[in-house]
Specification:
heterodimer, A: 206 residues, Serine Threonine Protein Phosphatase 5, Tetratricopeptide repeat, 70% helix, globular, B: 331 residues, alpha/beta, Rossmann fold, six-stranded mixed beta sheet, 8 helices, 14 strands, 24% strand
Chain lengths: 206, 331
């Protein structure tokens, strides 16, 4: 992955978030407060604007800029969580081109940042439930190239998001519903799946 | 959705524009979304800053002024503000005596305020955080994000604000804020759901004869859905739910807040207050001070919350101290 591909990935995320805004909002209305779609759209729209004027000399610079912009623009829980994740990924990739193995390390740093800030474990019905299997799949397929790794992560994240349906939320606003949070797909895990789907789409188009 | 807005995207900016026009005694930085007092306190004073998602008005902007907050940071509707806002507020009101951040216990608020506190500390500002978590509807704190911050926020902001105004030190103000929170419990019942402008429809559907018991202030459903019943019965149950979790005993005094969630007429809130008072009297608890009205709302949600703060002489004296804000004023 070079800086150009990194920017393309972020733009693809922005497009996906815009397209899926009402779906994310619908999921969030069921067990949260119905703002996940609009918050992420606002954040990634600002990110795209910020990247327009960024002269990035590394993959990390693109991802770090994405992270700081999300922290500044989104608010809620998703702003700090995704913002810190992208910042951590950025810090892990100071090079102009990143290999799939290096990208795997960055994805692991991103997950670590999310878990440190939010304190969620797998099974708590959060972003972590999509990011964890996606990371494992990406790592396992990294030797086969970016496209193979991204496609594996995409499939694993989508499955991880679907697997949140029967879970009872133990973090975030959905946790207040207790057992009533079961039977609904977690919006955060769903947006993580979008982010990895965008990576696969970008790798395919490259 | 039928709302008095221009568009969901501009609702916060438009509301802040109107708020600024209505309150020249406040300084409203609309681009940065920070509300401060137009006239700063003279000399060093511990500054109180709060913030949270919009849609809970008058919380928090309506509580900025002498005797209460120094600054408020309104986020998007039901969305925590961002660290940049809080840092802007800290820089605007810090006068050398330190800053107390009053944070309602929600995942987003906690994380954004934490990031802001780290940034402010890097700039050499002494920061203390008071977490408000008074909602007894969250029964199992170890398996959830913990109890939500609701009506007690008003109590903390008023009482800690009064102490700060008298020149108390940073740790004293923060400690008192925590003490007020620990002495407070709340519980809410909703008759209808709130409609977030960007979502365009109510957060949940509620049949004509049903209510949501144990709701929060963000349009999310409550713990249980039950049959609607007369105010006397509901008020008594809410009082009992709070007392089951509170250390209150016969002869104690409380400050009681019967709070409208945004879509309930004052007429009905007074019905509830009368019933609350009667039930507390049966249990031997005396309301020393009260507030009845819309203070911590949830957009257009119909329903009420009850907050009981166990009071002592010191808290009552600080409660009675002068305050001059858009939503709370006495001398």
């Amino acid at each position: 992955m070079d800086t150009e591909l990194a920017v393309a990935w972020i733009r693809e995320i922005a497009a996906a978030v815009e397209q899926q805004e009402s779906y994310l909002t619908e999921l969030d209305s069921a067990i949260g407060d119905g703002d996940h779609g609009s918050n992420l759209r606002r954040g990634f729209t600002a990110v795209v604007t910020a990247l327009d004027t960024l002269e990035a000399d590394s993959v990390g610079a693109v991802l770090a800029k994405t992270g700081t912009t999300l922290i500044s623009k989104v608010g809620g829980a998703s702003g700090p969580l995704y913002g810190s994740a992208f910042r951590a990924m950025g810090k892990a990739l100071p090079q102009a081109t990143a290999t799939p193995a290096e990208l795997a390390v960055a994805l692991a740093e991103g997950l670590l940042a999310i878990q440190q800030l939010g304190g969620a474990k797998p099974g708590d019905k959060t972003i972590v439930d999509a990011w964890t299997p996606a990371l494992a799949a990406f790592e396992a397929a990294a030797a086969d190239g970016l496209l193979a790794a991204a496609e594996a992560a995409d499939a694993a994240a989508a499955q991880g998001a679907r697997d949140t349906v029967p879970l009872q939320a133990r973090k975030g606003r959905a946790s207040y519903l207790g057992p009533r949070s079961t039977g609904h797909q977690d919006p955060g895990a769903t947006s993580t799946a979008l982010i990895l789907h965008a990576l696969a789409d970008t790798a395919r188009a490259a | 959705m039928k709302k008095l807005i221009n568009s969901p995207e501009t609702v916060l900016t438009d509301a802040l524009t109107g708020f600024a026009a209505a309150h020249p005694e406040l300084a409203v930085d609309i681009p940065n979304r920070v509300i401060t007092r137009a006239v700063r306190p003279s000399g060093p004073k511990v500054a109180l800053i709060s913030g949270g998602g919009s849609g809970h008005e008058p919380l928090h902007g309506g509580f900025v002024g002498p005797g209460m907050l120094d600054a408020a940071c309104p986020g998007e509707v039901f969305t925590s503000p961002v660290p940049d806002q809080m840092l802007t507020a800290v820089r605007a009101v810090h006068s050398g005596a330190g800053v107390v951040l009053i944070v309602k216990n929600y995942t987003g608020d906690v994380m954004n305020f934490q990031l802001a506190a780290e940034l402010a500390a890097e700039e050499g500002v002494e920061i203390r955080t008071v977490l408000v978590n008074d909602d007894v509807a969250v029964e199992d704190s170890t398996w959830t994000a913990g109890r939500r911050g609701t009506g007690a926020t008003v109590m903390v902001e008023k009482i800690a604000g009064a102490l700060a105004e008298r020149g108390a030190a940073l740790d004293e103000v923060a400690e008192l804020g925590r003490r007020v929170n620990a002495a407070s419990r709340s519980f809410a019942v909703a008759l209808t759901a709130a409609t977030v402008p960007a979502a365009g429809k109510p957060g949940f559907d509620l049949p004509e004869d049903e209510i949501e018991v144990g709701v929060g202030i963000h349009g999310e459903p409550g713990r249980r859905r039950e049959r609607h019943r007369p105010a006397a019965q509901l008020a008594a149950e809410v009082v009992d739910t709070i007392l089951a979790d509170h250390e209150l005993t016969v002869g104690d005094e409380v400050i009681a807040l019967v709070n409208g969630l945004g879509g309930t007429p004052l007429l009905e809130l007074y019905v509830v207050y009368g019933e609350v008072r009667a039930r507390l009297a049966e249990r031997g608890i005396h309301i020393a001070r009260n507030l009845v009205g819309n203070y911590v709302t949830s957009l257009d949600m119909a329903g009420f919350s009850l907050t009981l703060t166990k009071a002592d002489g010191e808290l009552l004296e600080l409660w009675d101290a002068p305050v001059a804000t858009p939503a709370l004023t006495w001398s």
